[in-house]
Design goal:
Distance between the termini: 40 Å
Strand order of the largest sheet: 1-2
Order of helices and strands: HHHHHHHHEEHHHHHHH
Structural class: mainly alpha
């Protein structure tokens, strides 16, 4: 915990623009150091992963990695939540469960857990108005192009940190809170409420589901139904910016049609290929 306290202090100095105006620094440090169903058949249909042939051998090996014990245990424990949230957002439960399984098997480790603990310790201890001000400052910097995801070339800016089982970034959770609020017909959460939700269940899964639903809609708008392609949905979740990618693909395909070439299908990357390769296993666990 002593190391955590030191890291808290360093992170505060890196990312709070006005140290003299930062409230509750002592209390933040003190708080750290003193704390000793059934699946609809259509939603499980898995197409042969488009783009598999384009993956490198390393990416194919990663896609073929067996589900980790932790991933399987999580899916078994949260089965009902996955099914319920997927139904609410009209997305494939295999895609929703698959992104968490992919994160837990391929990407998330002890460092991520420590990072999330640090994030909660620092920003969860701030007053609502101070966290809102920090979020506003960070978003302004992001929109100006001053934030490339890294600080001093070493540590990722916490505004872009990914949190929870589905590894949703705090920024995207803030951005998608209005969507979630409309979905559940409730008032929008403030920044602290978003932080609490994105770092817990089922909130984390709800934000992830909203991101998957956006990708599904974006490609539906260009005439491509990817709702039964969990690997493609997972790829778009992993890469981000699905609306931009869908429009770019539509533009490319328009040019190809004009020149007599066949259209291009959205392809999977290693992350999406992992979900595609394990889709039947994920479906079996969800149906158990």
């Amino acid at each position: 915990m002593f190391l955590v306290a030191i890291m808290v202090g360093l992170l505060l100095r890196l990312w709070w623009p006005d140290q003299d105006a930062l409230p509750g620094v002592e209390s933040v440090t003190e708080s750290v150091t003193s704390t000793p169903g059934e699946i609809v058949e259509e939603s499980v249909v898995v197409r042969r992963a488009p783009g598999w042939a384009l993956l490198s051998e390393d990416d194919r090996r990663r896609a073929d990695t067996p589900l980790s014990d932790g991933a399987q245990a999580w899916l078994e424990t949260e089965r009902d939540t996955v099914l319920r949230v997927a139904d609410l957002f009209d997305i494939s439960p295999v895609a929703l469960g698959g992104i968490v399984v992919a994160e837990k098997t391929l990407l998330v480790g002890r460092v991520d857990a420590i990072g999330e603990e640090l994030f909660g310790a620092i920003f969860g201890s701030l007053r609502e108005q101070d966290l809102e001000r920090w979020v506003s400052d960070q978003e302004a910097a992001f929109q100006r192009g001053e934030m490339d995801g890294r600080s001093s070339g070493v540590v990722r800016n916490p505004y872009l940190w990914t949190l929870g089982p589905a590894q949703v970034s705090f920024r995207l959770a803030i951005q998608y809170e209005p969507v979630i609020a409309r979905q559940f017909d409730r008032p929008q959460r403030g920044a602290k409420g978003v932080l609490e939700a994105v770092t817990s269940m089922p909130g984390n899964l709800e934000y992830a589901a909203a991101l998957l639903a956006e990708a599904q809609r974006a490609y539906g708008d260009i005439g491509m139904d990817i709702s039964t392609s969990p690997g493609v949905l997972a790829t778009l979740y992993h890469l981000g910016a699905p609306t931009f990618r869908a429009r770019r693909l539509a533009s490319e395909n328009a040019a190809r049609r004009a020149s007599g070439e066949p259209p291009i299908e959205p392809h999977v990357n290693y992350y999406g290929a992992f979900v595609s390769r394990h889709a039947a296993e994920i479906a079996r666990i969800l149906e158990a």
